Amino acid sequence: MPTLYNLIQGRNLDRLAALSDGIFAVAMTLLVLDLHIPSAVEVHSERELFTALGALAPQWVAYLMSFLTLGIFWAGQQTQLNHIDEGTRDLTWIYLGFLFTITMLPLTTRLLAEFISYRGALGIYWLNILLPGAMLYWSWSYATRAGLIKADTPDEVRGSICRRILIAQSLYAAGAALCFIHTWVSIAAIVLVQLNYAVAPRLWRRDGA
Questions:
Q1: CB count in 10 Å sphere of residue 120
Q2: Which residues constitute the domain of residue 12?
Q3: 174 in a domain, yes or no?
Q4: Exposed/middle/buried for 201, CB within 10 Å: 0-12, 13-18, 19+?
Q5: Nearest CA to 94 among 130, 141, 162, 129?
Q6: Is 208 within the bounds of a domain?
């Protein structure tokens, strides 16, 4: 049987939300700190400056992708936490596993930026999208089975959270598979999926707000 300590551990979701906010903030900051500007030694004219900036396109593309990725996952986790009544030890560790995958994103972003034409780098980056999605799906499924969801949460909300994760991950996988055509085609598809989840739901609201 679970010990008393295991039964009382991880009940406060506010502390978990605060930790998550901090980790996401640090990850987002690391993304921009990893961007590099052209060296003044190598630039001697306006034309050379813009040429050098153009050569940094892979860094900026990877930064945009990862910032969108972090924003989507942060919003997804906060949505779950807003509908969970209280935590448990197991739920806390599932979310900690989710946060572990988030801390890896600056690393895989840098790898993609340096080797953006390599399928292997894109595959590793996609894996860093798949794993947090899987952890979020696991966390919501566990919370549902354990009866942790707030009683006033509508049934359509309970089901829509898992469906959203499954659909998003299916689209990401399809986008990643396009790397066999070209990595830039794959990256464009992934960014379009991200923009859909970041922008389109707001545009589709009937009240126009």
A1: 10
A2: 4-203
A3: yes
A4: exposed
A5: 141
A6: no
Q: Is 209 within the bounds of a domain?
A: no
**pTM listed for this prediction:** 0.85
- Note the Cα 97 to chain centre separation in Å: 13
pLDDT tens digits, one per residue of 133-159: 999 999 999 999 999 999 888 888 888
Burial class (CB in 10 A: 0-12, 13-18, 19+), 192: exposed
Answer whether residue 37 is part of any domain.
yes
> In the block, which residue shows the tokens 């340096």?
114
Contact present, 77 and 164 (Cβ < 8 Å) = no
pLDDT range class, residue 41, cuts 50, 70, 90 = confident
Total domains present in the chain: 1
Given a cut of 60, whether residue 202 has pLDDT beyond it is no
Could you report the per-residue pLDDT of 73-132, keeping only the tens digit for each?
A: 999 999 999 999 888 989 999 999 999 999 999 999 999 999 999 999 999 999 999 999
Residue that the structure tokens 């840098």 belong to: 110
Residues with Cβ within 8 Å of 42's Cβ and at least 6 positions away in sequence, in order, are 48, 52
